Known about the structure:
seven-stranded antiparallel beta sheet
Amino acid sequence: MNQRPERHMLLHPKAAVLQGIMRGIEKEGLRVDLNGALARTPHPQQLGSALTNPKITTDYSEALLELITGVHGSVESLLGELEDIHRFVAGKLQGELIWNQSMPALLPGEADIPIGWYGTSNTGMLKHVYRRGLAERYGKAMQCIAGVHYNFSLPDEVWALLGTEGNSIEEQRSKGYLALIRNFTRYSWLLMYLFGASPAISTSFVKGQPHQLERFDDDTLYLPYATSLRMSDLGYNNKAQSELQLCYNDIETFLKRLHDAVTTPWPAYEAIGTHRNGEWIQLNTNLLQIENEYYSSIRPKRSVERGERPSTALAARGVQYIEVRCLDIDPFCPVGIPDTTSAFMDAFLLFCAVEDSPFFPNNGFCRDSNDNFGIVSKRGREPGLKLVRQNQPIGLQDWGRELIERIAPYAELLDTVNNTTLHTRALGVQAQKVNHVEETPSARLLAELRASGRTFHDYTLSQSLAHHQTLTATPLPPETVASLERTATESLAEQLAIENSDTESFDTYAAKYHAALHAPVPSWATAQ
Length: 528
């Protein structure tokens, strides 16, 4: 192994600052009926407003729940809140379950997959029309794919300890997080191997469309060595977006390319138009309707004000945190992500932030990293699989063991400052997967399908029912129930107030929303 500077030593003099690491989770999950078919019912009113409830909303489909934690200073409190929200939701669902798998349940025809509805306010209609556009561009079945989004931030003091350049904290922060993202891009294939849990799908997902999958049984398709079909070109893919390559070398170029994507017309979308039979069917005919349409495995993020564009917020105040979007739902865990995954993510992301992170050549695009990610998604458990590192082939297991070794000091550092052994224990769990491919969740899932003789659909339905029973077996503390019910009730009142306060038509509102998008130029960045 090549000798390299021990970058983690830069943190040792003031390692206690790492207690300021914060993390949050957005966990998606389809509502299904007791036969495992997609729920056609509206978002349950007892869960509050999907527009304004900060804890419980929907993603693309009306049936796709999104459960959102607050920001937490420890893995334990993070997953504690995630479990509380799951238990609350499970207790409110009537004759329905949360589907505990990233790839969808039994889907109806495209016309019968419900798109998320957020009420009649202009802000609610903006969200709904955006989703109509997604249906036009990508099809509704893709809207039913689910995952776990992991949000992560470092305390501002870390950037000075690492010697990150910048004349302001906004500039330091943004440069630091983009460096993290570049390293994440280099090494995120490892997450596909370790946590990919969608090697198979129900035949209802492809509905006769051409594919390269093999038949596992009468109702299940798969790839023998796949880890995450969700993150392969079977899942989130699009011809238009394949030509969009964002650059993470600097914030200015990143924002410019994102701005170009949301302002440049795309011929196929122009052919669709924005209206059909007098109704809006997409927000515009550009490559992206809005910034969040870009399907990436990681995003630089900044909290936004109501009606503010994400790129405008990033340009005004810099990157605030990163959002990892490539984690599959863990089908063996009632809340979709165990503590060992969360703890490993903290160590992995700290490693990505601290280690040297050279700029990408080729106009900011690293083809090898993208190819490695795709290869591992579809073939990650293939014996003797080779990846490419710096234009040279390297065995997946060899590179994986090297990365585990390099991440180890960061896990130990996090354990020391947090007075725990969780992070090193989590690293040990992942090391076992690198050394024993049969312990990966994708391999375990296929082994259980074979052992049980059940289809992907029937097995997942059984798992989802078992998790539902686990979540509802013990009542939540009354104060927790009261708090979540109060949040739900207040969100319904807030949605009504927003609807009653609207004074302009949606056409006018949409025009203003588009007009508010300006070429984002960070005012805080160092003058060139």
